[in-house]
Amino acid sequence: MDDVDRTLLAALQENADVPGKTLGETVHLSTSAVERRITKLKQDGIIEKVVAVVNPKAVGRPLSILVELEIQNEHRHTLDQFQRWLDRAPEIQSCWYVTGDMDYVLLVAVRDLDEYNAFIERLMTEQQALVRKYKSIIALKTIKHSLAVPVEE
After folding, report:
1. What pTM did the predictor assign?
2. Tens of pLDDT along 104-118?
């Protein structure tokens, strides 16, 4: 990956709808050369996917809650099943397996506390043998929300 690729990645992370011609002018390459580079970045797994970032409030999910989970055991089979459950839960925007006092941190987007309560009840019912405890942290205000990754060398 060279400086041109880094410039393209930075621009695409800011706005993936930028036309190839505009990107080409930025990096002093033809539109087709830019498109070939973007295709290669995708093939190499550097660009995983291109998505629309949706404003949760605009689609009726204004409440963001961080949930820390502590689990009973970390047997590989049990973890795999649990992680599949987490992956299928539509309320979970992001999930991390972490170090420290807790084992997982979830970012949950819901309409209201009733929907969050239903999510927790489902979690604690369907995963009662695995989840030891959880802690909820309600976000009062989003200061920064970004999917961008620094790409400078």
Report:
1. 0.86
2. 999 999 999 999 999
